[in-house]
Every structure is written in structure tokens, then in C-alpha cells.
Amino acid sequence: MCSKINTFGSMDNRPIGIFDSGVGGLTVAKAIAEELPNEQLIYFGDTAHLPYGDKSKESVRAYSNRITGFLLAKGCKAIVIACNTASAHAYSELKKFYPKIPIINVVNPTVNYCAEKYDQGKVGVIATKGTIQSRIYPRKIVKKNPNLEVPQNAAPLLVPMIEEGFFNNNISQTIINSYLSAKNFEDISALILGCTHYPLIKGEVERFFQGKVDVIDSASVVAQYTKKILKKEGIASEHKKGENLFFISDFTESFEETSKLFFGQKIDLREERIWD
Question: Count of domains in the chain?
């Protein structure tokens, strides 16, 4: 694809669209903002339908398609699916619907990272029940590197715990330790944080393993991959077009408070009822 140069000589400064079922994907948005400071971001959190983990595949695909259409109508040049469940169920369909737009999910970059970095051994996964039941990480990693074993465990208490701001204390550390003490995680070389909420507890996970296990934050991996794709496609921006925009499909004050935890600073959340 040829580079898109505007009349001022800079590269394509259209925004990057990012979406999730709620505010958890803001960890991905934060990582992308840090990795690509010249890019404007437009984020959409489908708070009217969260969580996606307990929705049917058909529903998740329908939600993802509608949100992608909304972001493209806002002029986005690329789409990042900042949700593991939507990545598992909707990515392939979105690629078919929008073949000319770079679409990035949170699973594939992490899979590629692990398959290339580790020759053999065990790479563990913790995630929501929906992501674990899809078996998307073990299927994709083993397909790329059959020498790897990929044990996985659901950690259903972590998302509500994190959204309540309940982490970095003795009780949260106890809950995290309980999940990580699972027998199938013995002797793992690395652990994938398979949910966009989990970067907020990365420090507690690392404390459990005492530096002996590589804890993989998918948000930072996805941000680096996004940078690579924009450069490859010739659509990186040399200067930021405008302020980042943040939309949610159903506004509550609790989401406004929670968003600070995930993005690291206060943001202006705008309600956009795209389902009406």
C-alpha cells in the first residue's frame, strides 16, 4: 500500500479507532498513546452490553460490526479491537467486511510474541471465562510453535475486583496468588495477562513469581504491533491532529471514575447511543 501524504507533506493524521466492551480497553489505549504520541485516538466502550464474555458469538459480532462502522464514520484509518472476547469472535468477520482497513486484535500480536520468543516449555494464560473457553491462546500458540505447552486458567474475580479499584493490597494479592498457585502453572516460563484489565495488577502478578516468570502485558505488545503496522502501511502520523476522544454507549458516574484507573488520568467520556 502506498503512503498517504496530505497537502502539507505529513503522513496520514487520521485517528486510530479502538473499542472494547467497556473501559478495560483503556489500558490498550493508554499503551498506544504512550507508544504513538503523534496519533489521535478515538475510543468506544460498549458499556450498554458489557461484559462480552457471557454474550453469544453472534451478538459479539453484531456489536463489533456496529462499533467499527461508527469509528470508520469518524474517519478512523485503523481499528484496534481492545477486547479478548471480540478478538476471538469478531476479528475474522471484521477483516472480511472491511478488507481495506488495518484491523488489529489483542490476541494475535501476543501469540506471535510468545511463539517467537520461547522455543519450548510452558506459557500460561489467565483470562476471563469467555476467553478461556474459546481456547484461542493455546490453539494459536501451539499452531505456531508445537513445542510450547499452554496451560490456562479462568480468573473470574479479577475483573470486578479491578473495576472497583480493589488492587495493590493484601486481599487482592491473596486472590491473585490463589489463581496463580494452580497446579498446571507449575514451571511456566511466561504468563500471558489475557484480559485488558490485567495490566493494572501486573505488579502483583510479578511479585507472586518473584521475577522468575516473564509476565506478558498484552497492551504493550499490541501498542508496539500497532506502531509496526502503521509504519508498514505508510499511514503513521507525524503530528497529532486533535485531542483523543472517548465514547461509551451508556454513561454512569462509576465508569467515569473507573476510567481514571485504566487510562491513568481523567478523561472526558461522551455518551453515544449508537443502538438507539
Answer: 2
Shared domain check, 197 and 95? no
Q: Tell me the one-letter amino acid at 228.
A: K
Q: Which element (helix H / strand E) includes 228?
A: helix 218-233
- Catalytic machinery residues: 83, 195
Mean per-residue pLDDT over the chain, rounded: 92
**What are the angstrom distances between the C-alpha of 124 and each of 54, 106, 160, 197?**
23, 16, 22, 17
Q: Does 267 map to a domain?
A: yes
Note the residue count of the chain. Answer: 276
- Digit-coded pLDDT (tens) for 65-108: 999 999 999 999 999 999 998 998 999 999 999 999 999 999 99
Burial class for 157, CB neighbours closer than 10 Å (0-12, 13-18, 19+)? middle
Q: Which domain holds residue 249?
A: 16-105+221-271
Q: In this structure, what CATH number is given to the domain that contains residue 99?
A: 3.40.50.1860
In this predicted structure, the answer to whether residue 212 has a pLDDT above a threshold of 80 is: yes
Sheet order of strands, 245-248 included: 103-105, 78-81, 16-20, 41-45, 245-248, 269-271
Which residue's entry shows cell 489475557?
194
133: which DSSP letter? H
